[in-house]
Amino acid sequence: MSTHETEITLDPKVPLVRMTREFDAPPEKVFRAHTDPKLIVQWLGPRRHEMTIDHFDCRTGGSYRYVHASDGNEFGFHGCFHDVRPAELIVQTFTFEGQPDGVALEKLFFEDLGDGRTRLVVTSLVDSFEDRDAFVASGMEEGVREGYERLDELLAG
Amino acid sequence: MSADPLSRVFSALADPTRRDMVARLTLADATVGELAEPYDVTVQAVSKHLKVLEDAGLVTRTRDAQRRPVHLEAEVFDLMTKWIERYRRQAEERYQRLDEVLRAMPDEPHPTAPSEPPTTGAAR
After folding, report:
1. Does residue A32 fall inside a structural domain?
2. B residues 9-38 lying closer than 8 A (beta carbon) to A
3. Which residue of A has its CA nearest to B100?
4. Can you name the residues that pair with A10 across neighbouring β-strands?
5. Which of chain B's residues have a Cβ under 8 Å away from the Cβ of A16?
């Protein structure tokens, strides 16, 4: 079970985040759960958000856009599929529309471990360490506000 | 300079030399001279980096001591680590939902199966 825990590493040399996670399903299945909109909405959105897919055309040259909504706030995300190799690799861009000038280059590797298991490796590359770190912090939801408050307290003390 | 403390910490750590200095300070306090040693830069340049780290609240310097060693504020640094852990946990929650989705999915037809026969009556 512990081998399933998501691992995150921040590369020290380039502004890249690497996530690794193993699944008890073959690469074809894990790949399909990443490309079929009906399946994606069941897991990709943050918990208390409703996810709406505007379009999701996962093939080389295709594009996607989806929106997370919560408490009247909407967060849009979009990008293009640069390269899609079924059950092997997805190369895509990723933009959070709240920061329209920012773009990450993401690679999803679906590695066949045999016995119906898959290792998924997701890398996100941005163009500065500042953006990378802000990107990591932006995933925090309410944690970010809490973090701000605690940091304010620490720095005031 | 960025107004909010979070951005200050992030931009202070955006520089590789400063990250390196912080990594060194996690081991022990050090003087400016000691911090400058491994780099091909002047003590003045290191002092400039330290000023940025100080403004971000990441390091402090003892005012009265002769050596004025630089001290890492571990609590502020730990907070950064916790943010990464939160990010990790959020990804893990997402992937646990994906585990469920994968369990509920029917088995695939063979992925390399030849393309489907032409639909009856389809125009060519």
Report:
1. yes
2. 9-11, 13-16, 19
3. A43
4. A17
5. none
Residue B35 falls inside a structural domain: yes
Is A122 domain-assigned? Answer: yes
More confident residue, B33 or A131: B33
pTM, 2 dp: 0.67
Domain holding A116, by residue range, is: 2-129
- Are A6 and B79 a contacting pair at CB < 8 A? no
pLDDT, tens only, B89-113: 888 999 999 999 999 998 865 554 4
Q: Between chains, do B108 and A19 touch, taking CB under 8 Å as contact? A: no
Domain membership flag for residue A146: no
Helix (H, G, I), strand (E, B) or coil at A86: coil
Model confidence over B11-46: pLDDT tens digits?
787 777 888 888 888 888 998 888 888 888 888 899
8 Å CB contact of B105 and A128? no
Q: Which residues pair with A81 in a beta bridge?
A: A92
Q: What are residue A31's phi and psi, to 5 degrees?
A: -60, -45
Chain B interface includes A26 (CB < 8 A): yes
CATH number at residue A17: 3.30.530.20
- Asked if the Cβ–Cβ distance from B111 to A133 is below 8 Å, we say no
Residue A31 in tokens? 């790949």
Number of separate domains in chain A: 1
- C-alpha torsion A37→A41→A42→A43, nearest 10: 110
- Contact of B75 with chain A, judged by CB distance below 8 Å, is answered with yes
